[in-house]
Design goal:
By secondary structure, the protein is of the alpha+beta class. 33% of the residues lie in helices and 26% in strands. The strands form four sheets. Strands 8, 9, 12, 13, 14, 15, 16 and 17 form an eight-stranded antiparallel β-sheet that branches. A five-stranded antiparallel β-sheet has the order 1-2-3-7-6.
Length: 316
């Protein structure tokens, strides 16, 4: 199976390109952006050495569906998906924070809680909670958005005081975050899943706040299976989940958390294919649709270049 791990396109009107951890973003005439979801995978702020086949298609198609399914809640950047791995949308000035919302104590929040932390990003946490227990209501724990290295936890007050987001815009972004998450939870519940936590990114264009980037994908979100959740919680057993956390856990088991002296463990073809299968499993679960592998046949980069160029020509 093939994986697209790098791109080097030259589209008509292209001003620049930004290569992120997973997405390559092409700026067209400082007006729209072409966002390519590659098959790269990152964990602990490191891009892993091998790509995951079909991952980019999974992420792009899930995000596209959720952008459409939430467009009545807030405006978003999406204009079109001319290719299974590409979304084209409005160029916005992104806020330098990510809005993380959590409904269950798990992942990095649990690791901090277990170490005695009782306040996360200015939000006080109750004593006596267990791993994977629901919060009384979802909590928002923002982080700074770093171009390189680790994103850092930050409170609402610090965001406003540092001028990262104005008080007025933050109030709007916080409201959008809660409403988007509620909609995501409702959609997940219909599919027998729990949307545990996720992150949203927002930006501005012509004075208006937009939802940007991906939404409700396994890279930005964590899903548990609803069936068996309460039973596993009562027994203190790990939850069955669909998210990128299983990759992080595999790395931790192989002594890698991107700490000094650690090296990324070798990823066998068997392991890579199992990760690919997990991404496809989430796609089919959350959308209720069969995943189409046929589009990945042939030269992936050539297909993307053709599809995007034709779309841009149609806009001219």
């Amino acid at each position: 199976m093939k994986a697209l791990t790098s791109t080097d396109f030259h589209f008509e009107g292209q001003k620049s390109v930004y290569h992120g951890k997973v997405r390559d973003v092409y700026d067209i005439n400082d007006d729209i952006i072409v966002m390519v979801a590659t098959d790269r995978i990152s964990a602990f702020d490191v891009i892993l050495p091998k790509g995951i086949p079909y991952k980019g298609q999974v992420l792009n198609q899930i995000a596209s569906k959720f952008l459409d399914a939430t467009s009545d809640i807030c405006p978003n950047w999406k204009l079109a998906t001319p290719d299974p791995m590409v979304t084209v949308g409005l160029k916005c000035e992104g806020f330098r924070v990510e809005m993380i919302i959590r409904s269950i104590l798990t992942g990095s929040a649990w690791r901090a809680y277990k170490d005695g932390c009782r306040e996360l990003c200015g939000v006080k946490l109750p004593d006596g909670m267990k791993e994977n227990e629901r919060f009384p209501e979802p909590i928002i724990t923002p982080t700074t958005k770093a171009d390189e290295g680790h994103d850092m936890n930050i409170s609402k007050e610090e965001i406003i005081n540092q001028g990262l987001v104005s008080a007025e815009d933050y109030a709007k972004v916080e409201d959008y975050t809660r409403r988007l998450f509620k909609r995501g939870q409702e959609i997940a519940a219909k599919r027998g899943l729990i949307l545990v936590d996720t992150k949203y990114e927002f930006g501005k264009r012509d004075g208006k706040v937009y939802l940007i980037d991906e939404i409700h994908t396994p890279d930005s979100s964590r899903y548990f299976y609803a069936d068996g959740y309460e039973e596993k919680l009562a027994k203190g057993e790990p939850q069955k989940q669909l998210s990128k956390e299983f990759v992080r856990q595999w790395l931790i088991e192989h002594n890698f958390m991107n700490e000094p002296g650690q090296t990324v463990p070798d990823m066998s073809d068997e392991y890579i294919n199992s990760v690919s299968d997990r991404y496809i499993e989430l796609y089919e679960h959350i959308t209720g649709e069969k995943f189409d592998k046929s589009v990945e046949e042939g030269d992936i980069a050539a297909r993307i270049e053709k599809n995007v160029s034709e779309y841009l020509k149609s806009r001219a």
